[in-house]
Amino acid sequence: MRKWLLIVCLFTYNWSLSQSENTYLKIRNISINGNKKTKEHVIHREMTLHEGDAFPAQKMDSILLQQRLNIFNLGLFNEVTVNIKNWEEDSLDLHIQVHERWMIIPVPIVKFVDRNITEWWKNYNHNFKRLQYGALLNWGNFTGRNDVLQLGISFGFAQRLDVGYSIPYFNIRKEKVGMSVAFSMLRTRRIAYNTVDDKLAFMYYGGSWQQKKIELSTQVSYRNAIHNIHYFNASYGYTTISDSVKHINPEYFLDGKQKQHYFRIGYTFVADHRNIRSYPTQGWYVSTKFTNYGLGFMKTRMTSIGFQFSKYNQWKKYPRFSTATMIQWNFSWPRKQPYNLQYIKSLGYDENIVRGYELNVLDGQHFLLFKNEYRFRVFSFQLNKMKKLKSKSAAILKSSLAYLPLNLYITAYFDAGYVWDTYFTDNNNQYKNKWQFGYGVGLNFVTFNSKLLRIEYSVNRYLKKGVYLHFTQPI
How far is CA 143 from the centre of its chain? Predict the structure, then answer.
């Protein structure tokens, strides 16, 4: 009797499990609250669920989480919640609550013209004449369509004007094609004319302008899927240098030229499956890019192609722990290239750097870069989640201040890179054409509008040690 009872119970369990696996839930209605400026269709565009769609009941948690992350990655909101309402049998409503960020940010410009703070502090004795100062208006979500208007003007080390506008899509029906335009003007009395001893060498001759530059660029984007996007860009640039720069480095524009003008075209494909783009802990990212200067008929000619793959993992049993890994490769030709385009395919610029070599630049035609990082989240803090404040500080909890996050991570990392160079072989630059590596530990602070501050202690291959500050994610 017990044997038959056990068989009946197992049959009933398997039947109910099968029914659960085959159950689909239908979405009757989707409501959105809290989007005072953002258009609703901007939020709907990021979702894979829409009114009338059905999804497997057993995957409900993961599907709703993906909706929340997709909306959050717009970069428009401090907080996003997705809740179920009016669940009746096999149908339900979705309620999305968002809290918009402050997107109009007029800020003074006070920044370093050097590649990082450490270079400014150590190589140039923290000379305040190397600061750039001015004003920047960064008006995000300008018309409520996640578009951005930028206007910046600055003085100091250089005089610069930047104007730009971008919109992620302008065809409202299909919502796939976007566009951006930008214009910039620059003139400076100080210029990095060459690389000597694996460091940038600057020159300054009184009040004369060493470089003048204008550039006009445009970009069209095509987003055929939530996580995939194609970029097509074109630009025109015109740059002149002084006689002094031309004489001290005839290869600045190649062949002793004093003027450079070029047309540039490019294509980039990005597949972004990271959970939180500002500081990912799960998912992966792939990008490929192609850039051509000169279009085959102008005197300034260079072509480069690049590839990047990043992978992020979070431990299921210990979600405070996560890892990040990246491989990046860049190849360019011809062998003979103007010095002023080195930043595109060399190590030492932006985050294309082996940590521990922040003071150095490794010029070349090709590079290969590996990065590995292990992270532990110490705490995640937000005022609106503190129970003690809910009854005493209602005014604060209703403001944007309550939604500003503060996350602290402890990190350990190891980087390695190699630069191939067969053209710029002078000036005692010894770090290229050989493997370089660096390792260390750091603290990462992720806070207001997903801003990041990294404090890292790094050691390189030659046991040179240092503490370095950065404001972007390394991987």
Answer: 23
Distance of CA 209 to the CA centre of its chain: 33
Q: Using an 8 Å Cβ cutoff, are 179 and 165 in contact?
A: no
Mean pLDDT of 58-73: 89
- Higher-pLDDT residue of 431, 190: 431
3-state secondary structure the chain: CHHHHHHHHHHHHHHHHHHHHCCEEEEEEEEEECCCCCCHHHHHHCCCCCCCCEEEHHHHHHHHHHHHHHHHCCCCEEEEEEEEEEEECCEEEEEEEEEECCCEEEEEEEEECCCCHHHHHHHCCCCHHHEEEEEEEEEECCCCCCCEEEEEEEEECEEEEEEEEEECCCCCCCCCEEEEEEEEEEEECEEEEEEECCEEEEEECCCCCCEEEEEEEEEEEECCCCCEEEEEEEEEEEEEECHHHHHHCCCCCCCCCCEEEEEEEEEEEEEECCCCCCCCCCEEEEEEEEEEECCCCCCCCEEEEEEEEEEEEECCCCCCEEEEEEEEEEEEECCCCCHHHHHHCCECECCECCCCCCCCCECCCEEEEEEEEEEEEEEEECHHHCHHHHHHCHHHHCCHHHHCCEEEEEEEEEEEEEEECCCCCCCCCCCCCCCEEEEEEEEEEEEHHHEEEEEEEEEECCCCEEEEEECCCCC
Of 21-35, 159-173, 376-390, 408-422, the least confident? 376-390
The class that CATH gives domain 21-100 is: alpha beta
Sign of CA dihedral 206, 209, 211, 213: positive
What pairing do the DSSP bridges indicate for beta strands 406-420 and 259-272? Answer: unpaired
pLDDT given at position 17:
41
In the chain, what are the domain boundaries?
21-100, 104-470
pLDDT at 12: 43
CATH 2.40.160.50 fits 104-470, yes or no: yes
* CA pair distance 97, 68, nearest whole angstrom: 10
> What residues are paired with 92 via a beta bridge?
27
> Per DSSP, what are the bridge partners of residue 151?
137, 163
pTM above 0.90, yes or no: no
Cβ count near 333 (within 10 Å): 13
> CA nearest 68: which of 60, 58, 76, 79?
79
Contact 341, 293 (CB under 8 A): yes
Please give the structure tokens belonging to residue 273. 């499956």
